[in-house]
Amino acid sequence: MKQKKIKHLSLFAGYGGINLGFQWAGFKTVAGVEIKQFACDILRKKWRDKSWH
User: How far is residue 9's CA from residue 19's CA, in Å, rounded to a whole number?
Assistant: First the structure.
């Protein structure tokens, strides 16, 4: 039986460190929010399939 991944929304994402930890733990990041443009640019490059605002 295939297990579903737990989904989470990343608020105050920063540079994505906590997202990486969640990914290693089997979670799926569906989207995220970060106010700093430089951090958003990094997040968009690392997780291209996600929506970052």
Answer: 9
